[in-house]
Amino acid sequence: MGADMETRLRALEDEAEIQRLAARFSDAVNERDVVAFRSLWADQDAVWEIGEPLPPRSEGRDAIVGMLEGLFVVKHYFMQMTHTGVIDIDGDRATARFAIREHGRGEDTFYDDELVRQPDGWRFRRRSYLYRFLDQGPFPGNTYPVRPR
């Protein structure tokens, strides 16, 4: 296999891994799995921020996990779905934008991401959650707790 083919194959593998990372993020949030959630973040310099009207921001894995646990207190139900993203890879760094849909609160949002390759794979360095639509009206119906696996 030529060097050009290897480069193209590596780019496809990297993009697929970043897509899986974004999907694992939604799965960890949906399942309230803080151990899996923590594993998705870079060792150093990780930042998670949510834009207006809910502007929390956390730096470092422990603070990021704590922010998620705080959101679980106020969000008794939500289901986040990550849609196909646009990914730009530059060596061991990448940027991405994923459309997100959360059911339960009527939100349409996007994640703007910065990613870094670590020895064990791609990790989020920064995730910025940006609202495009937010309906905070009453949500009819029943909610059910996540069942442990």
How is the secondary structure organized here?
Elements (H helix, E strand, L loop, with lengths): L2 H28 L3 H5 L8 E4 L6 E3 L1 H14 L4 E12 L2 E11 L3 E12 L2 E14 L15
Parallel strand pairs: 1-6
Antiparallel strand pairs: 1-2, 3-4, 4-5, 5-6
Describe this structure in words.
The chain is an alpha+beta fold and 149 residues long. Helices cover 32% and strands 38% of the residues. The protein has three helices and six strands, in the order H-H-E-E-H-E-E-E-E. The chain has helices spanning 3-30, 34-38, 61-74, and strands at residues 47-50, 57-59, 79-90, 93-103, 107-118, 121-134. Strands 2-1-6-5-4-3 form a six-stranded mixed beta sheet, with helices on one face. A hairpin with a 2-residue loop joins strand 3 and strand 4 (93-103). The longest helix is centred in the N-terminal third of the chain and has 28 residues, at 3-30. The protein is globular. The N and C termini lie far apart (43 Å).
Helix fraction by DSSP (H/I, runs of at least 4): 25-40%
Quaternary structure annotation: single chain
Beta percentage is 35-45%
Number of helices: 3
Using only C-alpha atoms, the radius of gyration works out to 16 Å
Terminal CA distance: 43 Å
List low-confidence stretches: none
What class, by secondary structure content?
Answer: alpha+beta
Mean pLDDT, to the nearest integer, reads: 86
What is the succession of H and E elements?
Answer: HHEEHEEEE
Largest sheet: 6 strands, mixed
